[in-house]
Amino acid sequence: MRKTLALLLALVMVVALCACGAETAEESAAAAEETGVFADVAGTYDELFPVMCDAQYDQLWLDNCAAVVGEEAAAETAEALKSACMGTIYGQEAIDAYSDGSNGAQFDCYFINGVKQFTFDGNTVTGTDEAGNEVFSHEYAFVQDLAIGPMPAGRLYKTEDADAGEFTYFLMLPDTPDSTYHIEFRYGSDIGALSQYNEGPYAYWLAAGISADRDEALIRNVIELFCTENLAEEEEAA
C-alpha cells in the first residue's frame, strides 16, 4: 500500500531535491570571495514545477516512479510527488491550513511578490513580472550562511538599497544547474523569518527555478533526480 501525500511529504520536504552537501561557514565564505556573488547560478530562471509537471512529461514521471515502486503504484506516486511541491499558500494561511494535519500539507515552490522570472547577473538580481516588466533590480553582497530549519545551509545575500522591501535578502540553497539541474532560494525582508521552515511569514514556501535556456535533457534530468531522490527510501525497502 502506497504512502499518502502527507507521508510522502516526510520524504519530499523540498530538501530531497538537493543532492549536494552542506558547506561549513568558512568554506562558504571563502567560495563567495573566490567566485563572486551568485556566480554558480548566473542566468535567468522560470518556475521549476510548472515546467516539470507539464503534461508532455507525464510518461517520464511514470517511468521514473515505476522503476522504484512498480507499475501499479507509479501513477499514484507520481501525482503525490508533484502535488507535494505545488501548494498555492504559504505563511500564516498555510500554517492555519496544515497545523492539525487533517489536510495533509504542501510546499509552495512558486515565485512570490509578483515575480515570474529571475535573472542573476554578477552581483545583481532582477525580477520581472508575467508581462516582462521589471519588478525590482538590486545589487547584493554575501552576508553569512543560513539554514532553513533542518535543510542544508545556504548563502544569504543582502542589498543596501533602502527601497528593496521583500527583496532585501536572498537566501540561496546549495543547488545549482550543474549539480542538481535547478536552483532553490528564498527572498524576503527578515533574516529570522527566512530561517524558519514551517513557521512565520514564509512558512511552507521555497522558490524553485529552472533555467529559461533549458533543453529537454535538463528537464529529463531534474525529473529523474526528483523521483529517485524522493523515492530512495522505497528502493532501499524493496
3D structure, described in words:
- This protein has 238 residues and is an alpha+beta fold.
- Helix 1 packs across helix 5, helix 4 packs across helix 5 and helix 4 packs parallel to helix 9 (216-230).
- The chain has helices spanning 5-12, 25-35, 48-52, 58-69, 71-84, 91-98, 177-180, 191-194, 216-230, 232-237; strands spanning 43-47, 117-121, 124-128, 134-139, 141-146, 154-158, 169-172, 183-188, 207-211.
Question: Can you summarize this structure?
Answer:
With 238 residues, the protein is α+β, with helices and mostly antiparallel strands. Helix content is 37%, strand content 20%.
Q: Which structural traits does this protein have?
A:
238 residues, alpha+beta, nine-stranded antiparallel beta sheet, disordered N terminus
Indicate the proportion of strand residues. Answer: 15-25%
The overall pLDDT average reads: 86
Estimate the helix proportion, in percent: 25-40%
Content-based structural category: alpha+beta
So what's the overall shape?
A: globular
Outline the low-pLDDT stretches: 1-16, 18-25
The radius of gyration is: 18 Å
DSSP summary, beta strand count: 9
